[in-house]
Design brief:
By secondary structure, this protein is an alpha/beta fold. The chain folds into two domains: 280 residues, Aldehyde Dehydrogenase, Chain A, domain 1 (3-Layer(aba) Sandwich), CATH 3.40.605.10; 183 residues, Aldehyde Dehydrogenase, Chain A, domain 2, CATH 3.40.309. Helix content is 39%, strand content 23%. It has a seven-stranded mixed beta sheet, sandwiched between helices. Strand 4 and strand 5 form a beta hairpin.
């Protein structure tokens, strides 16, 4: 069945002429949804609605906001199976991964239902007698949220839930490949009783995102996507002095030392590099291996990669689903070619696969014997492609892990307390994993990177209050 999507503006479903389609990447004959292309007029209407709704929503009892978010979380949980199927059909995650993401989104809303009641300040003793001093946190205003296709319900949830919890209003622009999943979330938020204008959805291409970024009545922007677009988002937001928060990917290293448990190291690499079809900003896209374990590790990694079952996302036996789109698949294949042309050895995979139905399938690629300065080790691929680098020792591994402009996630597999302690203190990354895949984070813990991976503060968990509220200091004389 093909859905016909609408915008959600001022509490109403707003239709428009169908201007685009989202396709099932497991079967491109299957049109998941047809959607309208919003523009400046729709953005203006959504922002106006959000601005009008802001005073009452910001002044509402925190219990009102908490109750809404908790109800949204419960509704998502109750519909996890059907939402998971929609997500997997539209984005290409396996059905287990799609359902897991839906449950993550539900728990994010429930977590921030609790945080809505914990927006606290501080009382301080003034240096002047007879005066009390205190700080309060207040809502900021209207937030524009521009979200990617790779986590089409979790990322909108972890941006929208804290914004709403702390009294802000929202205009969401989802990614073009996955509008149906975002539309389903918006429908649930409205069904659960969000007042008109508190949460708005405008579907469309990059022009919609640009209109949100440039809008004078948008007080803050939270963006997840590429570095190139992120730079333009930051420029536009800073120019008009709006708050801005950017998450812009990673080229995440996984260091494997000689003393590592081989099975654990390979399992971490397989999970980090290939699950989610490698379409995670925290994916282990380069594995740096010391020479004592290198050959055994690469051999075992290749064997495991070749055994992974690639197939239709809705088939429960599938381990690796399709790539999200034809353009993303071509990018993956291009990087495999570049890596081999620069001297890397294609040890496994890297081929486009033909299945029963037309789709965007490729075999997980392992590119061995790469040098640290190759493009495959410095540019984000965003697919099921992993490279390996041989190094002499821990010091060389750390130095190579710290190369480049990204700094989102980094991991190490070792039984050495000394090296694990040194690594987590000295690797240049916002998140560090010890004996774990670089991908996979908790919903109640801050998320974000260093260098050019992130800008403007952390997302998720207790850190979200910093971005979605502003501090007010109050002095009172008795």
């Amino acid at each position: 069945m093909t859905d016909t999507l609408t915008h959600f503006i001022a509490g109403e479903a707003v239709a428009g002429a169908a201007a685009g389609e989202s396709l099932n990447p497991s079967n491109t004959n299957d049109v998941v949804a047809r959607y309208p292309a919003g523009g400046k007029a729709e953005v203006d209407a959504a922002v106006a609605a959000a601005r009008a709704a802001f005073p009452a929503w910001a002044d509402a009892s925190p219990e009102v906001r908490s109750d809404l978010l908790d109800k949204v979380g419960s509704t998502i949980m109750a519909r996890a199976k059907e939402l998971g199927q929609l997500l997997s059909r539209e984005e290409g995650k396996t059905i287990a991964e799609g359902t897991g993401e839906v449950m993550r989104a539900a728990r994010i809303f429930k977590y921030f239902a609790g945080e809505a009641l914990r927006r606290h300040g501080r009382t301080l003793d003034s240096t002047r007698p007879g005066i009390d001093a205190a700080t309060y946190r207040e809502a900021v205003g209207v937030f524009g949220l521009v979200t990617p296709w790779n986590f089409p319900i979790a990322i909108p949830a972890w941006k929208a839930a804290p914004a709403l919890a702390f009294g802000n209003t929202v205009v969401l622009k989802p990614a073009s490949p996955t509008p149906a999943t975002a539309h389903a979330l918006a429908a649930i938020i409205h069904e659960c009783g969000a007042p008109a204008g508190v949460f708005n959805l405008v579907i469309g291409d990059g022009k919609v995102g640009q209109a949100i970024v440039d809008h004078e009545e948008v007080d803050g922007i939270s963006f997840t996507g590429s570095q190139g677009i992120g730079a333009r988002v930051a420029e536009g937001a800073v120019k008009r002095q709006a708050r801005v928060q950017l998450e812009m990917g990673g080229k995440n290293p996984l260091v494997v030392l000689d003393d590592a448990d081989l099975d654990r190291a390979v399992a971490c690499a397989i999970d980090g590099a290939f699950y989610g079809t490698g379409q995670r900003c925290t994916a282990s896209s380069r594995v740096i291996v010391t020479e004592g374990i290198h050959d055994r590790f690469v051999e075992a990694l290749v064997e495991r990669a070749r055994a992974l079952r690639v197939g239709d996302a809705l088939d429960p036996a599938t381990q690796i689903g399709p790539v999200v789109s034809d353009s993303q698949l071509e990018q993956n294949m291009r990087y495999v070619r570049i890596a081999t042309e620069e001297g890397g050895r294609l040890a496994a995979g890297g081929e486009r696969l033909e299945m029963t139905n037309p789709g965007y399938f490729m075999s997980p690629a392992v590119i061995a014997d790469t040098a640290p300065d190759m493009r495959i080790n410095s540019e984000e691929v965003f697919g099921p492609v992993v490279s390996t680098v041989r190094v002499k020792d821990y010091d060389e591994a750390l130095a190579i892990a710290n190369r480049g402009q990204f700094g989102l996630s980094a991991g190490i597999v070792t039984n050495s307390l000394k090296h694990s302690r040194h690594f987590r203190r000295n690797v240049r990354a916002g998140m560090v994993m010890v004996n774990l895949p670089t991908a996979g984070v908790d919903y109640h813990v801050p998320f974000g990177g260093t260098r050019k991976s992130s800008y403007g503060g952390r997302e998720q968990g207790f850190a979200a209050v910093e971005f979605y509220t502003q501090m007010k200091t109050v002095y009172v004389a008795g």
